[in-house]
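Colleagues,

For the teaching module next term, I've prepared a clean inverse folding example: a structure given as tokens, and then the sequence designed for it. I'd like students to try predicting residues themselves before seeing the answer, so please don't circulate the second half yet.
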């Protein structure tokens, strides 16, 4: 446990550095926005393309893992929604709270951290989890919110979702990388080195950006944020882990990576969705802040457990 905590500590130290820089005004919100764009569109995309270009599709696709993660996440999604409805928060806020309960910070925190902790072999499972989050749950939240407000489904909603997926640089870089992999040709040395240099900026850049973005978030509605943090950091890895280990035949290494990925704190893009649709943005903000702080310890516990038990 102590060894794992010490290994994860530098990642959270970078987050703390970004938080401190933004809180003191040294790193203004505009700079955070541009740094996030650089990481999202360039550094992280370069890292994902390089990794996926060196994998075969057969190495990435693992249907038992997909089903274990998808069904475990759906179970928790429904639980969080039902709890919100019992509290008479309505379907809009219920959908937002459910999103907080299952969508972790895979892109900016999970990919840099887990690949370094578990090795490059973890790329496949992490990318599958990211794909499910972006394609399935990224679509579900938009459908629920727009459908509830309009009272009906329309082709326009589905078209917007499809365009959003096609424009997402993480999806595009993974798909293009796998397409290159299908040619059975190695990346040219200068291209591979260029992508390696650019991709190396993803880890410090993403972690610093996470911390800086937390500086303008608050811990309002702490009781609800505490419940959603419990869902994300405890119930989510338990749910997907139970399905992976006892229902589906997921190999122990992939199961360990998936469980660790499920234990990541709430993703920052949940707040972007909440603010865009004006659905409980302060609640999303508090959930991101609280879950990130608590994950300094909880994530180390989960990684230590899966490392000792499954690897």
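(Answer key — instructors only)
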């Amino acid at each position: 446990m102590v060894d794992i905590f010490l290994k994860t500590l530098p990642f959270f130290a970078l987050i703390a550095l970004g938080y401190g820089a933004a809180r003191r005004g040294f790193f203004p919100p505009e700079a955070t926005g541009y740094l996030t764009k650089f990481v999202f569109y360039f550094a992280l995309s370069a890292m994902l393309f390089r990794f996926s270009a060196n994998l075969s599709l057969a190495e990435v696709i693992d249907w038992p893992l997909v089903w274990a993660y998808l069904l475990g996440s759906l179970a928790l999604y429904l639980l969080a929604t039902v709890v919100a409805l019992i509290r008479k928060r309505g379907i809009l806020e219920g959908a937002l709270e459910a999103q907080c309960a299952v969508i972790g910070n895979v892109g900016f925190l999970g990919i840099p951290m887990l690949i370094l902790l578990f090795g490059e072999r973890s790329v496949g499972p992490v990318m599958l989890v990211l794909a499910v989050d972006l394609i399935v749950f990224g679509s579900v939240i938009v459908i629920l919110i727009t459908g509830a407000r309009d009272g009906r489904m329309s082709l326009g909603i589905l078209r917007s979702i499809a365009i959003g997926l096609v424009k997402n640089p993480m999806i595009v870089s993974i798909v293009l990388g796998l397409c290159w992999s299908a040619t059975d040709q190695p990346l040219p040395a200068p291209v591979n080195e260029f992508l390696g240099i650019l991709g190396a900026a993803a880890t410090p850049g993403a972690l610093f950006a996470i911390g800086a973005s937390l500086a303008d978030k608050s811990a309002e509605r702490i009781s609800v944020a505490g419940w959603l943090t419990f869902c994300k950091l405890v119930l989510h890895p338990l749910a997907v882990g139970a399905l992976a280990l006892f229902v589906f035949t997921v190999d122990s290494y992939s199961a360990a990576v998936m469980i660790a990925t499920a234990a990541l704190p709430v993703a920052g893009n949940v707040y972007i969705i909440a603010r865009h649709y004006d659905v409980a943005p302060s609640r999303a903000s508090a959930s991101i802040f609280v879950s990130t702080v608590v994950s300094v310890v909880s994530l180390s516990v989960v990684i230590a457990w899966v490392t000792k038990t499954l690897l």
